[in-house]
Recover the amino acids of this structure.
């Protein structure tokens, strides 16, 4: 019964996130913001709402900080697997795609995020902010994210020329966006509680459960949106959604660290270190996918290595 409930909630996460993505796309067509900013920040933030609220529930309601690390780090590797998996079937079309320059920069910032988390685990330095103590790594993560957002806001290197007419007014779009966002928050909180019960039943560690069950389920929005975007030939938006979501996921650790008053969110354990190591490797391979875009063999090799990295990280974490 608990597994059936998990599947139902996962399906709802996909449905609600796809609808939210549609309304963000509508806003894109009614504003003058850059395409890179819309895909890499707004759409990425929307499809990362499940990771955000499931992680906050893990620390506030379940007292499981390890679940947060597994969720975020597992989701990030799985997200890159989405790109890799798609390119195994669409590498020819990808060679002629136009990508924003900011995607490569976002990946580099993502690698920097992994370094910051590593330092936060092995060289923790707490800073007092009133009644709470925060790991300095959390502050650095927020700073790096904001720096990347500033860069993406002005990236017009792959601006869309889609003139599709949107009949909804901006006000109507915003109301529907808020309603679907509230529903997504509620489903995400339930999904966290169900995952915690599955972890107990299967006697899995919190980090492993987060990486497998939460990491995959909360990445379904990115998966659905990216497949659809590639289907219509928009590789740029698909890449922006994935790499932007990954960077947004990192600041979830910062929020969780601020809200978790019982201790630090950056926990030193073998499964976390595996996810960090293979996460960095996957980021470098994704950089290779962009760098060698015209070389189909290189793209396929990097894609296979990303997929192998995710499988290996899960196996070694169990």
């Amino acid at each position: 019964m608990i597994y059936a409930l998990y599947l139902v909630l996962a399906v709802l996460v996909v449905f609600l996130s796809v609808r939210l993505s549609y309304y963000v796309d509508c806003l894109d067509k009614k504003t003058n913001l850059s395409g890179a900013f819309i895909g890499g920040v707004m759409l990425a933030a929307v499809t990362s709402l499940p990771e955000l609220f499931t992680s906050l529930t893990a620390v506030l309601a379940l007292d499981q900080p390890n679940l947060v690390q597994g969720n975020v780090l597992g989701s990030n590797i799985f997200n890159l697997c989405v790109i890799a998996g798609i390119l195994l079937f669409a590498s020819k079309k990808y060679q002629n795609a136009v990508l924003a320059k900011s995607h490569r920069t976002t990946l580099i910032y993502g690698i920097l995020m992994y370094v910051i988390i590593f330092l936060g685990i092995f060289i923790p330095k707490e800073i007092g902010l009133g009644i709470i103590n925060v790991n300095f790594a959390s502050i650095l993560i927020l700073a790096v994210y904001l720096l990347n957002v500033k860069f993406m806001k002005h990236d017009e290197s792959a601006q869309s020329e889609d003139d599709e007419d949107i009949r909804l007014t901006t006000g109507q779009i915003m109301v529907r966006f808020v309603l679907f966002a509230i529903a997504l928050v509620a489903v995400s909180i339930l999904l966290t509680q169900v995952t915690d019960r599955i972890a107990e039943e299967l006697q899995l560690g919190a980090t492993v459960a987060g990486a497998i069950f939460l990491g995959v389920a909360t990445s379904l929005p990115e998966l659905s949106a990216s497949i659809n975007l590639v289907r219509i030939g928009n590789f740029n938006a698909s890449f922006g959604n994935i790499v932007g979501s990954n960077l947004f996921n990192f600041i979830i650790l910062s929020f969780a660290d601020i809200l978790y008053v019982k201790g630090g969110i950056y926990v030193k354990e073998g499964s976390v270190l595996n996810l960090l190591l293979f996460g960095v490797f996957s980021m470098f391979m994704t950089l290779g996918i962009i760098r060698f875009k015209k070389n189909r063999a290189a793209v396929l090799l990097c894609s296979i290595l990303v997929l192998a990295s995710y499988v290996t990280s899960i196996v070694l974490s169990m």
The longest helix spans residues 170-202.
